[in-house]
Hints:
Elements: E1 41-49, E2 52-60, E3 66-73, E4 80-87, E5 90-94, E6 100-106, E7 123-130, E8 133-145, H1 161-176, H2 180-185, E9 187-194, E10 199-201, H3 204-209, H4 211-214, H5 217-223, E11 232-234, E12 237-240, E13 245-247, E14 252-256
Parallel strand pairs: 9-14
Antiparallel strand pairs: 1-2, 1-8, 2-3, 3-4, 4-5, 5-6, 6-7, 7-8, 9-10, 11-12, 12-13, 13-14
Amino acid sequence: MKRITTRLLALSLLTLPAVTAEAATPAPAASAAQTPQPMPDNYRFSGTLGPYPIGVTVSVRADQTVANAHYFYVKNLVDIPLSGQVSGEQITLSEPGGGRFTLHFETNDKKAPTPLTFQTSTGLAGTWADGTKTYPVTLTLEAADNLAPNTLYADVTNASPTVYEAMVQRFLHSVLTGNKADTAKLISWPLRVNAEHSSTLKSPAALSASWSRVFTPCVLATLRHAIPHEMFVHNSQAMIANGTVWFDAHGATAINSSACPAPAK
């Protein structure tokens, strides 16, 4: 389920002191540079560029201009900077190496007002081209926030985003390679397992004994497509694979496990 966060703006009232005749000389007006500017809204998408799974983040100012943007391939999670322009329902994103996204807003809401914007659309679609190479692009909006890059996980940990994501990536690698000992080191005990028969595991030994029940074939298949980068945060925890695993500052805290559906007869 998609989760969209919203920005909360705090307003304060200033009480002005009485001005005496001796102090009646007006102070210089504050320059525009001194006026705090609202943080741009970050729209985070996931999807595909041709056969390649990708993620895209576009930061948009209140006037709908692009403040900054980047994308990454899921296989290596390295951000590639983009410059962008919006014209009506069209958006163009260009990378330094020559690649260019030509996209338009899309929505699955037939009652959405037009023209579509970042706020009213549910995704982007179009093409990516570089020289003679052209691929179709399909992106789905996953979340929105107004966090600065270095504060993405500030509600979860004091570690930098790079360090925190590396921990989640190690957890994924350990699970997918069946390394029970290393997986146990990356769990914030006790571990809550939400399944048909939910339970709380309190030790590495308990995890080892329940491994196949926790990491079912369907859970493993889901985790192979997880994106441990620019993860969604809620209630001071980060999640991967649409909530299949949740993490606090020290490791995995909950796993939403599920059995594979029986094949249709």
